[in-house]
C-alpha cells in the first residue's frame, strides 16, 4: 500500500470532491428518439421500420403517462411501469470522427437495458438506477450514412417496493474522444488535510490510451476558486502503454481554502488538461468542495465541528413528473427540504440522479448515498436479488466511482433493511465484502447500512461490518445498543414514518389504523405498527446524544407504497390494491406537489432557529359549534397564546405544557407520550378566527391567524419563480389556491380547475397531492384537494413570456405570467 492510500485510511476522514466529469465535447443525446411501448420483433435491426413509432425527447418515463388502473400494483404507484419499451435513435457521425473513441453513456435506464448499435448487440445493464457506458467506435458507420441505436427496457411486475418509473428517464450522452483521454469518472480528488488555513488536495486521474503505441502525456490540474480565479496549477508527465491506462497522482496545496460547509457550500472547479506532443488531447472538468469529515462513536464532525443529521429520506420520483429527471424539480425538492431545516439527505434506496448530487453540493446538503434495497435474499418476487450475484459488486463500485468527488456525500450505504440481517451465518460476510468494495474505491468516507431488526444484526456481527450502523425505527433501543456495543457509532437512518394527508383532519382525534376516507388525519399521530410521531424520535435523540441524528421517512410523499392502505404482502401476493384507489405514500412531510403538510412545521420548529409559528387545524367546522376542537401549535418560540375570536384561550409554555399523544408502536410501553414539542388547546368551536401569538423572551414575535373561510369565490395563482431559463428544460411551479372572496383558503374545496397556456412554454403536468386521485398528471385540468392544486410549466428554447390561465365554474378565474430568458 502506498503512502497516499495509508493516509486515506487514517481514521480522520477528510476529502474534497468534484462532479462527474463534464467535457465540452460531450454531446447531449436526449433529443429525437423514437419509442414503442410493447415487445416487437427485430426492433434492434437497422432495417426495422420505426416510422410509425412515437417521437420524443428524453428524459422520458412512460409509466407516469398512466393511466392509473387497479390492474397495476398500487404498491408501485398503480401505474403501467412493467412490460417492454423500445427506444430507437437515428444519427449520423461526422466522417472525421473515424479513429476517435466514441462512447455512449446512459445515466440510468429503467430497467434491464439491452443495447444494440447498427444491429450489433453491445451489452446490457439490469439495475435501473446505475449509470453505464459502452464503447461503440467499432460498430459505427463513418461514411455519412444512418446509424441506429436501439435500446430495449423490460421493467418487471413485482420488482420494486415503490414506483420505479420506466424508460430512459435520465440523460444520454455521446462522448467522442481522442484515443488518449480521461477515463469515465476518471478523476478522484480528495483532500487529505483541510484546515482553516490549508487544504492539501490530491488528484488521481486515470488516462486511457486506446492507441497501439506507448506514449507520454502531460497531465495538468488547474484549480479555480468559487469566484473563478485560478488559485493553483500542477502538472506532471506520465507514460501510458499501448491499449492500457495509467494514473496521474498530483498533490497541491490551497492556502486559506474557502471550505465547503452546509452554510457556505463553496465549490472549486478543477480543469484537467491532457497534452500529448504539445497538442491538447483531452480537457476534463470536475467540481470539488474542500472539507473534512470525521466520525467517532459519539458523533459526526464536518470541518471539525460536531453536526447532527437533521435528515430526510427521499425516493427518486418527482411526483407528477415521475422518475424523469428535471434539474429544477430536484432543486425545488431540496430547497423545500432546506426550508424545513434539513441538512442531510438519504438517497433511499438507490443511487440518485447526478443532478440531485450536484444540487446537494451547491445547496450545502450532506448525503448518505445508498446503493441497494436488497442483496441476494428477496423482498419482492422479481427484485434486484436476481441480479445481485452477477452485478452487485460492479453496481456498488460504479456508484462510488461516479459519485466520490461530491463534497455533499459524507457516507456510503451498502443497503437498506437487507433480509440477510436474519442470516446469522452468512449475513455479516456479505456485508463485509460490500464494505470492502467501498473502501477499495473510496477509503475516505465511512460506510453505513440501515438495520430494522433488533438485536439480530448487532449480535450476529453484521452491523459491526460498517462504520456507522443505521438504526431504522428503534429509538427505544438506542441506549440498549450503546450499553451492549459501546464502541458502535449509530445514526437513526430511518425514523418516524408518521403518515398524513395534507389539510385533512378527522375529529375527534383517534388513533385508527385506517380511515374510511382512505386519507390520514394531519394531527400527526398515525402510522403503521413500526411508526411513531416525530416527537418520540426528538425525545430519544435528546436522551442519546451519541446518535448522530436522524433521517425521517420521508421528506416528500412519493408514488407507491400507500401505507397504511393497500394490504400486506402475505395477504395480497405482493399487490397492494385492497384499498384502491390509494396508490401513493402518506409518509411525506410535504405532499406529492411539494406543499407542506403540518408535520413540515413540526420539524421546522425543532430544526430551525429563525422564529416560526404554525397552527392547525383549519377553522371550518360547520355543525361542530360548541364542540371541542383540538388546536395544535408548532413553534420554536418559548410560549404561545391562542385566541378564538379575540378571546384568550390561555398561554402555553414550551417544555412545561405538554401534549398527550396516543402511541402504540412496537416496544413502547407507556402507550401515551407527553410531548413538549407541540403546544395544544381544546377549544369549543365557533366560526370566526383563531390566532396564535408566539413569544420569545417575553416579547410577541410571531403570529398566525386562520379564518373560517366562506364559499369558494376565486382562484389565486402564485409561482415559485417569475423568471426561468429558456432552455427547454426549466420549470415553473404554479400553486393554485381556491379562496373565498376575502382571500382565505377554502380548506375543503375540490373545484375542478382547467388550465390553458399561451406563449413560449407548455403545461408539463398537474397534481393536487391527493393520494387517492386517479386523475392524469398529464391533463390540462385538475381538481383541487384540500383547496389546492399545482400546475408545472416547462420553458421552450425561445425567450419571452409564458401565460397560465386558470378557470373554474362559478369562480373568478386568474392568470399569471412567467418570463423566460
Ligand atoms: C421501511 C423501509 C422503507 C419504507 C418504510 C415505510 O421499513 O425501509 O423503504 O418501506 O419502511 O415505513
Explain briefly what this protein structure is.
This protein is mainly beta and 821 residues long. 12% of the residues lie in helices and 37% in strands.
Overall number of strands:
47
Average pLDDT number? 95
- Unreliable runs, pLDDT <50, ≥5 residues? 1-20
- Rounded to an integer, what's the Rg over CA atoms? 27 Å
What compounds are bound to the protein? Answer: beta-D-galactopyranose
Write the CATH fold name of the largest domain: TIM Barrel
Domain DUF4982: 626-701
Domain Glycoside hydrolase family 2 catalytic: 296-450
Signal peptide: 1-24
Protein name: DUF4982 domain-containing protein
Write the layout of secondary structure elements.
Layout: H1 3-9, E1 13-16, E2 27-28, E3 33-36, E4 54-56, E5 85-91, E6 101-106, E7 113-117, E8 120-125, E9 132-135, E10 147-153, E11 172-177, E12 180-194, E13 198-209, E14 215-224, E15 230-240, E16 244-255, E17 268-276, E18 279-288, E19 290-296, E20 299-302, E21 305-307, E22 309-313, H2 327-340, E23 344-346, H3 354-363, E24 366-370, H4 385-403, E25 409-416, H5 427-441, E26 447-451, H6 456-459, E27 468-472, H7 478-484, E28 489-496, H8 534-543, E29 549-553, H9 569-572, H10 598-607, E30 613-616, E31 628-635, E32 639-644, E33 647-653, E34 659-662, E35 672-675, E36 679-684, E37 689-696, E38 699-707, E39 714-719, E40 723-724, E41 731-739, E42 752-759, E43 761-767, E44 781-783, E45 788-795, E46 800-807, E47 814-820
Parallel strand pairs: 22-23, 22-29, 23-24, 24-25, 25-26, 26-27, 27-28, 28-29, 40-47
Antiparallel strand pairs: 1-19, 2-11, 3-4, 3-5, 5-10, 6-9, 6-11, 7-8, 7-10, 12-13, 13-16, 14-15, 14-17, 17-18, 19-20, 20-21, 30-31, 31-36, 32-33, 32-37, 34-35, 37-38, 39-41, 41-45, 42-44, 42-46, 43-45, 46-47
The structure holds beta-D-galactopyranose.
Amino acid at each position: 500500500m502506498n503512502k497516499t492510500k495509508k493516509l486515506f485510511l487514517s481514521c480522520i476522514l477528510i476529502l474534497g470532491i468534484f462532479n462527474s466529469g463534464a467535457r465540452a465535447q460531450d454531446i447531449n443525446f436526449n433529443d429525437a428518439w423514437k419509442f414503442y411501448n410493447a415487445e416487437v420483433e427485430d426492433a434492434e435491426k437497422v432495417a426495422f421500420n420505426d416510422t410509425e413509432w412515437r417521437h420524443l425527447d428524453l428524459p422520458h418515463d412512460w409509466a407516469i403517462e398512466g393511466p392509473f388502473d387497479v390492474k397495476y400494483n398500487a404498491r408501485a404507484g398503480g401505474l403501467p411501469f412493467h412490460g417492454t419499451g423500445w427506444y430507437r435513435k437515428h444519427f449520423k457521425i461526422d466522417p472525421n470522427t473515424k479513429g476517435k473513441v466514441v462512447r455512449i453513456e446512459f445515466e440510468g435506464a429503467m430497467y434491464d437495458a439491452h443495447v444494440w448499435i447498427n444491429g450489433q448487440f453491445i451489452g446490457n445493464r439490469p439495475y435501473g438506477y446505475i449509470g453505464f457506458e459502452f464503447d461503440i467506435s467499432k460498430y459505427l458507420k463513418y461514411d455519412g450514412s444512418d446509424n441506429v441505436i436501439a435500446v430495449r427496457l423490460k421493467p418487471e411486475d413485482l420488482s420494486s417496493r415503490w414506483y420505479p418509473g420506466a424508460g430512459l428517464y435520465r440523460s444520454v450522452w455521446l462522448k467522442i474522444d481522442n484515443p488518449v483521454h480521461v477515463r469515465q469518472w476518471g478523476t478522484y480528488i480528495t483532500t487529505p488535510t483541510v484546515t482553516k488555513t490549508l487544504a492539501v488536495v490530491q488528484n488521481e486521474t486515470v488516462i486511457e490510451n486506446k492507441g497501439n503505441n506507448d506514449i507520454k502525456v502531460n497531465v495538468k490540474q488547474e484549480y479555480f476558486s468559487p469566484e473563478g480565479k485560478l488559485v493553483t496549477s500542477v502538472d506532471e508527465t506520465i507514460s501510458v502503454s499501448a491499449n492500457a491506462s495509467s494514473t496521474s497522482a498530483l498533490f497541491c496545496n490551497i492556502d486559506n481554502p474557502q471550505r465547503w460547509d452546509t452554510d457556505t457550500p463553496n465549490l472549486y472547479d478543477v480543469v484537467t488538461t491532457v497534452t500529448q506532443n504539445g497538442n491538447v488531447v483531452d480537457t476534463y472538468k470536475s467540481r470539488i468542495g474542500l472539507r473534512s469529515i470525521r466520525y467517532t462513536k459519539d458523533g459526526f464532525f464536518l470541518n471539525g465541528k460536531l453536526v447532527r443529521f437533521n435528515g430526510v429520506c427521499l425516493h427518486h420520483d418527482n411526483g407528477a413528473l415521475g422518475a424523469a429527471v428535471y434539474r429544477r424539480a430536484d432543486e425545488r425538492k431540496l430547497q423545500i427540504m432546506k426550508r424545513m431545516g434539513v441538512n442531510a439527505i438519504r438517497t433511499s434506496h438507490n443511487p440518485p440522479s447526478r443532478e440531485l448530487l450536484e444540487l446537494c453540493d451547491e445547496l450545502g446538503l450532506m448525503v448518505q448515498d445508498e446503493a441497494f434495497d436488497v442483496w441476494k435474499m428477496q423482498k419482492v418476487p422479481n427484485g434486484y436479488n436476481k441480479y445481485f450475484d452477477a452485478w452487485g459488486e460492479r453496481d456498488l463500485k460504479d456508484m462510488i466511482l461516479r459519485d466520490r468527488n461530491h463534497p455533499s456525500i459524507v457516507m456510503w450505504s451498502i443497503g437498506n433493511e437487507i433480509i440477510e440481517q436474519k442470516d446469522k451465518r452468512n449475513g455479516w460476510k456479505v456485508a463485509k465484502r460490500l464494505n470492502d468494495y467501498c473502501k477499495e474505491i473510496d477509503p475516505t468516507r465511512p460506510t453505513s447500512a440501515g438495520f430494522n431488526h433488533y438485536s439480530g444484526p448487532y449480535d450476529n456481527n453484521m452491523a459491526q461490518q460498517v462504520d456507522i450502523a443505521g438504526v431504522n425505527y428503534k429509538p427505544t433501543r438506542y441506549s440498549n445498543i450503546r450499553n451492549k456495543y459501546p464502541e458502535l457509532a449509530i445514526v437513526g437512518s430511518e425514523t418516524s414514518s408518521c403518515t398524513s394527508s395534507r389539510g385533512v383532519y378527522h375529529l375527534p382525534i383517534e388513533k385508527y389504523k385506517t380511515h374510511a376516507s382512505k386519507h390520514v388525519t394531519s394531527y400527526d399521530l398515525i402510522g403503521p405498527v413500526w411508526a411513531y410521531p416525530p416527537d418520540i424520535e426528538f425525545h430519544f435523540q435528546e436522551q442519546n446524544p451519541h446518535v448522530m441524528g436522524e433521517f425521517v421517512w420521508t421528506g416528500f410523499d412519493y408514488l407507491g407504497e400507500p401505507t397504511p392502505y393497500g394490504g400486506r404482502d402475505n395477504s395480497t401476493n405482493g399487490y397492494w390494491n385492497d384499498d384502491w384507489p390509494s396508490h401513493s405514500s402518506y409518509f411525506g412531510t410535504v405532499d406529492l406537489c411539494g406543499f407542506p403538510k403540518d408535520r413540515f412545521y413540526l420539524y421546522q420548529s425543532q430544526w430551525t432557529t429563525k422564529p416560526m409559528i404554525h397552527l392547525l387545524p383549519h377553522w371550518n367546522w360547520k355543525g361542530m359549534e360548541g364542540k371541542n376542537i383540538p388546536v395544535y401549535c408548532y413553534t420554536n418560540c418559548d410560549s404561545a397564546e391562542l385566541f378564538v375570536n379575540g378571546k384568550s384561550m390561555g398561554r402555553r409554555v414550551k417544555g412545561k405544557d405538554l401534549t398527550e399523544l396516543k402511541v402504540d408502536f412496537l416496544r413502547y410501553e407507556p402507550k401515551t407520550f407527553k410531548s413538549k414539542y407541540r403546544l395544544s388547546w381544546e377549544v369549543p368551536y365557533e366560526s370566526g378566527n383563531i390566532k396564535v401569538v408566539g413569544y420569545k423572551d417575553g416579547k410577541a414575535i410571531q403570529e398566525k391567524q386562520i379564518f373560517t373561510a366562506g364559499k369558494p369565490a376565486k382562484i389565486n395563482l402564485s409561482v415559485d419563480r417569475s423568471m426561468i431559463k429558456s432552455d427547454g428544460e426549466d420549470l415553473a411551479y404554479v400553486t393554485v389556491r381556491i379562496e373565498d372572496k376575502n382571500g382565505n383558503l377554502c380548506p375543503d374545496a375540490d373545484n375542478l380547475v382547467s388550465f390553458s397556456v399561451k406563449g413560449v412554454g407548455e403545461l408539463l403536468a398537474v397534481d393536487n397531492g391527493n393520494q387517492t386521485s386517479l386523475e392524469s398528471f398529464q391533463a390540462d385540468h385538475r381538481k383541487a384537494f384540500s383547496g389546492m392544486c399545482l400546475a408545472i410549466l416547462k420553458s421552450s428554447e425561445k425567450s419571452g413570456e409564458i401565460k397560465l390561465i386558470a378557470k373554474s365554474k362559478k369562480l373568478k378565474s386568474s392568470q399569471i405570467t412567467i418570463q423566460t430568458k
